[in-house]
Design brief:
Length: about 170
């Protein structure tokens, strides 16, 4: 059910502050490549803290430069920000949602597994993915592996070295 003109993002919630300018430059370049080289028009973002929100903001910036670009927010639940402590991050999130072209809620309220359902929802609808993965565990690693298994073409803003062979 993947759409040839769709790309999703996956990445960690905590980004190294000192690396943010470099991450933005790489992210802008990859978003532009998706648009100009692959014809991507639809960008799925999960709305989590960290890489997700940064990616959504970079898509909004790209939308000013390229016509026909859509930001699609695929959120795990309506109360995603309920346990967030930082008011500035909540306002940032709400600002992104107000500018999104579409917002999908995978579950009404938080439930076990809703983040994984959200990630699969985005990957299932995308031909491409852009990831910021710096370790082999957690939701980002799971999502990258799932996306690769179903045939998504992944691009990495950051990635961990290949695992060494056990012998």
């Amino acid at each position: 059910m993947a759409h040839d003109k769709s790309c999703f993002f996956t990445g960690h919630r905590i980004l190294p502050t000192g690396e943010l300018p470099k991450i933005c430059i790489k992210l802008d370049r990859e978003i532009e490549n998706m648009i100009t080289k692959n014809g991507v028009t639809d960008f799925f973002c999960g709305g989590a803290l960290g890489f997700d929100m940064l990616a959504a903001e970079r898509v909004l910036a790209a939308r000013e430069k390229f016509e026909g670009i859509q930001l699609i927010m695929a959120l795990p639940c309506r109360n995603q920000t309920e346990k967030w402590r930082n008011g500035a991050e909540i306002r940032r999130y709400e600002n992104i949602l107000s500018k999104a072209d579409f917002v999908f809620y995978i579950c009404e309220e938080y439930e076990k597994g809703c983040m994984y359902k959200r990630n699969r929802f985005m990957a299932d609808r995308s031909k491409f993915g852009i990831a910021y993965r710096t370790h082999y565990h957690g939701g980002t690693d799971y999502t990258v592996k799932y996306a690769q298994e179903i045939g998504c073409e992944m691009t990495f803003i950051a990635d961990v070295p290949k695992k060494p062979l056990p012998f």
